[in-house]
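> @MW can you paste both from yesterday?
MW: sure, first one:
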Amino acid sequence: MTSGDRAKRPPRQGQGGVPEESVGAILQRGGEELVLRKARDRFTLCLASGQTELPPQIPAICDQKIPRTQLVEVVVQPERLEEAIATARSLDSVVFASHGGNVRFGNAIQYQLKVFSETALEDLSIGSSVYTLAGTCIGTLFAPKKFAIAPHQELTLSLSIESPNLAPGSYYSAFSIGQGDYSNTRYDFDIVVGYPSFQILSISSQNSQISNWHANWGNIVFQNTTLTLDRHNSDLPTSS
């Protein structure tokens, strides 16, 4: 999650764009700069199955359920953010608590997951989906690489979604471990929905910007497009 402050700054002589150390923190727009920073007064958490209310141990100012998920956005005093996250993570009624992360537009989305099984399983694959905070699924993948796991073994899986072209905004993820995919029957052994949440920034690694993206344009930016023009002579009569 991010919040923004407009800041007038003197022009940089002999320098264009945003300095490398500030990429992902400053968005240039309309001759001004929008300073992006991680919101220090809120985080998201996932409630355990059957849990409907925010645990009272969490020092929340207010909270808001994210539709069609077990996710809750929690607002706290900025100086108590780390305390609140630590408290949430210590509770059995909370599956996880996250302060989210930032991804520059056009960059790969990279995940790392740990998988544990008490039994031997083969021909496994990982599935993943990306959702808007309104609970709309905007894309799903099934990684083609298969793997096996031995009894009481822990595996670390690294998954990368290259060039997703997600529009600037806030999203969360879902994962499944199972067998099969969209070409046949899918059977999932385990599913996790709502973690991690992340923010797509309006600036890319190449300092290009998508600073005026409207929500009603959707969540995917189509960039690699081709337009051809055929010019024809007009058949309309000319006046003499």
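MW: second:
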Amino acid sequence: MKRRGGSGKPRKRRAVGGKPRKVPTARASIADLQRQLDQRTRDRDEALEQRAATAEILSLISNSPTDTQPVFKTMLAKAVELCGASFGAMWLVDGEGCRTAAMHGDLPRAFVEQWRSGTLHLPKADIPMVRAIRSRKTVHTQDMRKERAYLQGDPLAVSSADIGGIRTLVTVPMLKGGRSSRCDRDLPQGNSALHC
């Protein structure tokens, strides 16, 4: 039977919305899923490394509650390892100055001797360590020799670049109780900075 006004041929159906939908290929979906899986695997592995490092440090703290030196050395070694850095230094605020709490990695002997534990440094406000502690934020230095502290002859900045061979630097503040300083030379007691 013929429909009214029809040619007798079946009608073509139109896609809703005008254009036909593009169906994703299985290959593209598999590749996307693989990328997601790889990223999540990397995230998990990094979290496990951090958790293991934290557990080791907490164990060390509980085993030697009065001797802080092994704790600082382990904290620094784990931070250097997690960052993939070749060396690092941990500085503690001491009054208006800073003292080395620990050093780790391949640093020249002359640099280590100059800044060994006990050497007090009275930093200028422009040094990355002071900026990190005051801002309570990580400071990334692209080239130590272009830093104002280096150009003004700050002993730590000059020694870091010229003796230590340090060019790129990441400074992470480790604040006690979240406090930061208020005035130019006043660094908060008990705070520290980690350089990698």
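> thanks! The longest helix spans residues 26-63.
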